[in-house]
Design goal:
Length: 214
Amino acid sequence: MKTKTFSFRSGLLAAGLGLALLMQAGCSFLPEPKADPTRYYVLTGPAFADPGVRQVAGTFVVGLKSVQVAPYLNGKAMIVRNETNEIAYQEFARWAEPLDVGVGRMLAARLVASDKIKRLYAQPFPFDVERDYDVRVEVLRCEGEHKSDGKIVASLACVVEVTEAKTGGAVVLRKVFTAPEAAWNGKDFSRLAQLLSDAISTVGAEVIAALPAK
């Protein structure tokens, strides 16, 4: 009986040791975890100020309506357009915030810095505030683009509208604005974000130029 007990225990010990070795060997075959290559980018420009903060100088009270973007721009992935119709969503290059929020933030910062604007309010507007002008922007393009001639550029196009903020108010500006194209290397998405930021700043400058002289 002692011999059988000893053999049984030895067998259990050997089986346990073998299982441990097998588990250790199995662990060595598991793939190494890979670092996440995804990078997130934001639009950047003038230091942000609260749109409702009173400016030292300025004449007009302006309302900035919520920015609209084309439906294909609604996702977080940054976009590179190939010539006219092909859209490539970038899996590992993403916006850190919804594009409409980022564009609105940029425009607010650009407008509130103008010496023409006394106050800037973002939608929804306060009921007890009278505005002089309202601004509406719809983003049609905001991406990198491979052009048919081989150039790679940052591409931004918007519908820009400035109207008097009253019932039946006159349209001061309504146009499709295409920002000047800026060369891009097709790889540096941080640079693309900066070039698009600069382009959005030109949209703000277009709005400011449409307002009457002080």
